[in-house]
UniProtKB/TrEMBL annotation:
Record-linked Gene3D superfamilies: Zn peptidases
Gene Ontology process terms (BP): regulation of signal transduction
Pfam families, sorted: Nicastrin
SUPFAM superfamilies: Zn-dependent exopeptidases
Annotated protein name in UniProt: Nicalin-1
Main location: endoplasmic reticulum
Chain segments annotated as transmembrane: 541-565
Family: Belongs to the nicastrin family.
Species for this entry: Olea europaea subsp. europaea
GO CC entries: endoplasmic reticulum membrane
InterPro entries attached to this UniProt entry: EF_Hand_1_Ca_BS (IPR018247), Nicalin (IPR016574)
C-alpha cells in the first residue's frame, strides 16, 4: 500500500511533458501552413508583352520579358512626385484612369521604371461579344482616342520603355479586387506611421512573369493569296482580256502583337473583298452573265511594312498579266465612317482610268446616300516609304486607287490594326454599303451599264449582299491576331482565307515570301502573370523573433515543471574551470 501512491504519481510528469510538446508541434504546424498559404499565388492571368522590334538596327518597344517586382498603382505614381524611385516597382495603370502626361514624362526624362502593366477594359478583349453600330458609346470613343495616342507613344519610343518590361492585361473582376487592395494600402501609407506599418510589417504583392528571353524571329515570312475569275472571250478573239484587280492587305501591327486583330484596318477590307468575290462568282458561274473582264483578287501581307507583300506579289506576276490590268482597287478601312469615303490616287485626276473609277464610284455613292472624295498624292520613287497600297501598283505604272475612310495618308505603323481597332468600332452595315458601292460600280463598268437605272445587286435578290456572311467573317477576323512575322506558313487564318477564296475563284495559290527591309522582330509576345502576396524581410525577422521567444519560454516552462527552477538556472551558469576541478 505504501508503494501505490508512487505508482499513481508517476504518470503525471510524463503527461505534463507530453501535452505541451504536442501543443507546440501543432502550433508550429499551423504557422508553417500559414507560411505556405502566404506563398501561394493570389491569382494568375494572361498578359501580352509590348512589341519588340528594330528599325534599321535601332531598338524599339520592350527589350525585356521577365518580371519580378513589387506592385504599385496609379495612385502611387501620382502621389509620390517626380523624385520617386520606381526602378523596382511595377506600376499597374488602368487605361480608364491613365495619365498620359506621366507616361510621357518617364519617356522624355528617361526615368527608370521596373515594369508597367496597362489594364485594358474587358470590352477590348478578343473574346468579348459585341455588335458594331453606327452610334458609338462616347465613353468607348474617348477610350479609343486614349489608346491610339498611348499606342503610338509606346511603339515609337525606344527609351526608357525599351528598358521597362511592359505588359497589357484586362481589368477583370479578380484583377479589379487586387487593384483595390493595392491602392488602399498605398493610400494608408501616406501617413508616416501607417507607411512604416505597411512597408515593414504588412504583406505586399509581388508580380512575376517568367518567360524565355526574347529571340529574333529568323526570316519572317509573308503569305500572299490570289484567285482568278476568268472572263468570257468572244468567238475568234485571240487577244487577252483586260483585267480588274481587287486587293486588300490582311495583316496587322500594334503595340501588343497578340491583341492586334485590326477589325477595321484591315479586317473590313478583307471581308469586303471576300463578299465581292462571292457576288461576282455567282455572275461568272453562268456563261450568259460572265463579263469580258478577268477579275483578279489578291489578299496581301506586309501591309504595315510599306506593303512589302504587295511589292513582291506584283513582281511575281507575269509581265503580260500585269500589262492586262486596266486598274486595281485597293480596299482599306471601310467599316467605320460617317457617310464619307475617299479615293486616293497617285496618277493625276485627269487620267482616263482615274476619271472612270471616280465617276463610277461617285454615281453609285449618290444612290446609296454616301459621299466619295478624291485625293491625289504624288509618289516619290526614291523614297522607300509607301503610305497606300495602290502606290506599289503606281510604281510599276499600273493604274490603281485606294478606297478608304481615312482622308490622309497614315504615318509608318499608324492605323495598322492596333489595340483600339476592335469589333466595337466596326459597323457591318457600313461594310455592306462599301461592298455594294464597289461591286455595283464594277458591274456597271464590266457590263457597260453606265447611265442606266439598273441595280444589279439589289436587296432581296439572289445577288444581294449577305449581312450574315459579312458578320461571320468580321467576327472571325476580330478574334484573330494577324501580325505577319508571327504567322506560320500554314497558319489557320491563312488556310481559312485560301479556302474561302477557293470557294469563289479558281487558280488560287499562296505565295510565300521572306519579309525584307529594315524590320527585325522578336518573339515572347505573351506570358502568364503570377501575383503573389509576400511579407517584407522585416516581417520575417519579427516572425523569427516571436518564434524564438516562444520556443525559449516553452523550453523554460518544461524544465521548470519537470526538473525545477534550480536546474534551469544551472544551465546558464558558467561551468567551473579545470583548475577548480583539479583542486
Amino acid at each position: 500500500m505504501a508503494n501505490s501512491p508512487k505508482k499513481v504519481q508517476n504518470p503525471k510528469p510524463s503527461s505534463v511533458l507530453i501535452d505541451p510538446v504536442y501543443s507546440s508541434m501543432i502550433t508550429l504546424l499551423i504557422l508553417v501552413m500559414a507560411c505556405i498559404e502566404i506563398c501561394d499565388a493570389v491569382t494568375v492571368v494572361d498578359v501580352y508583352r509590348l512589341v519588340q522590334y528594330d528599325i534599321g538596327g535601332v531598338p524599339f518597344g520592350s527589350r525585356l520579358a521577365s518580371l519580378n517586382h513589387h506592385a504599385g498603382s496609379s495612385f502611387f505614381s501620382s502621389s509620390s512626385g517626380a523624385a520617386a524611385d520606381l526602378s523596382r516597382t511595377v506600376l499597374i495603370l488602368p487605361v480608364r484612369e491613365l495619365n498620359l502626361t506621366f507616361i510621357k514624362e518617364y519617356i522624355t526624362h528617361r526615368k527608370p521604371l521596373g515594369g508597367l502593366l496597362l489594364l485594358l477594359p474587358p470590352a477590348f478583349s478578343l473574346n468579348s461579344e459585341s455588335v458594331g453600330g453606327a452610334h458609338h458609346d462616347s465613353a468607348k470613343d474617348l477610350m479609343k482616342e486614349v489608346l491610339v495616342e498611348l499606342e503610338q507613344l509606346l511603339i515609337h519610343a525606344n527609351t526608357p520603355v525599351s528598358e521597362t518590361i511592359t505588359f497589357f492585361g484586362f481589368n477583370r473582376l479578380h484583377l479589379h479586387l487586387f487593384m483595390s487592395d493595392v491602392e488602399s494600402r498605398i493610400k494608408f501609407s501616406i501617413n508616416p506611421i501607417m507607411y512604416l506599418l505597411m512597408e515593414y510589417i504588412c504583406f505586399r504583392y509581388k508580380l512575376v512573369v517568367a518567360v524565355p528571353e526574347p529571340k529574333k524571329v529568323a526570316s519572317p515570312t509573308i503569305a500572299n493569296i490570289q484567285g482568278w475569275l476568268p472572263g468570257l472571250k468572244a468567238d475568234g478573239d485571240s487577244n487577252q482580256l483586260p483585267t480588274i484587280a481587287i486587293v486588300a492587305s490582311y495583316d496587322t501591327f500594334g503595340a501588343a502583337p497578340a491583341l492586334s486583330v485590326g477589325s477595321d484596318s484591315n479586317g473590313s477590307g478583307v471581308v469586303a473583298l471576300l463578299e465581292i468575290a462571292r457576288l461576282f462568282s455567282i455572275l461568272y458561274s453562268n456563261p450568259k452573265t460572265r463579263g469580258r473582264y478577268n477579275l483578279l483578287f489578291g489578299l496581301t501581307s506586309g501591309g504595315p511594312y510599306n506593303y512589302n507583300g504587295t511589292y513582291k506579289w506584283l513582281r511575281s506576276l507575269d509581265q503580260r498579266q500585269r500589262e492586262t490590268i486596266d486598274y486595281a482597287i485597293c480596299l482599306n478601312s471601310v467599316g467605320s465612317f460617317n457617310n464619307d469615303l475617299w479615293i486616293h490616287v497617285s496618277k493625276p485626276p485627269e487620267n482616263a482610268y482615274i476619271k472612270q473609277i471616280f465617276e463610277g464610284l461617285s454615281n453609285v455613292a449618290e444612290e446609296l446616300g454616301l459621299k466619295v472624295g478624291l485625293k491625289h498624292k504624288k509618289i516619290n520613287i526614291s523614297n522607300t516609304r509607301v503610305a497606300w497600297e495602290h502606290e506599289q501598283f503606281s510604281r510599276l505604272r499600273v493604274t490603281a486607287a485606294t478606297l478608304s475612310e481615312l482622308s490622309v495618308a497614315p504615318e509608318l505603323l499608324q492605323n495598322t490594326g492596333g489595340l483600339s481597332d476592335n469589333r466595337h468600332f466596326v459597323d457591318e452595315a457600313l461594310i455592306s454599303r462599301s461592298v455594294k458601292l464597289v461591286a455595283e460600280s464594277l458591274a456597271r463598268h464590266i457590263y457597260d451599264l453606265k447611265g442606266k437605272d439598273i441595280n444589279i445587286f439589289a436587296d432581296n435578290s439572289s445577288l444581294a449582299v449577305n449581312p450574315s456572311y459579312i458578320r461571320s467573317w468580321l467576327d472571325l477576323l476580330s478574334r484573330t491576331p494577324r501580325v505577319a512575322p508571327f504567322l506560320s506558313k500554314t497558319d489557320p487564318i491563312i488556310m481559312a482565307l485560301k479556302k474561302e477564296l477557293a470557294d469563289h475563284t479558281i487558280e488560287v495559290n499562296v505565295q510565300q515570301e521572306v519579309l525584307d527591309g529594315m524590320f527585325t522582330f522578336y518573339d515572347s509576345t505573351t506570358g502568364r502573370l503570377h501575383i503573389y502576396q509576400v511579407a517584407s524581410v522585416t516581417f520575417d525577422l519579427l516572425l523569427l523573433l516571436v518564434l524564438g521567444s516562444y520556443l525559449i519560454v516553452l523550453f523554460s516552462f518544461l524544465v521548470i515543471t519537470t526538473r525545477g527552477l534550480d536546474d534551469l538556472i544551472s544551465l546558464f551558469r558558467r561551468p567551473p574551470s579545470r583548475k577548480v576541478k583539479t583542486a
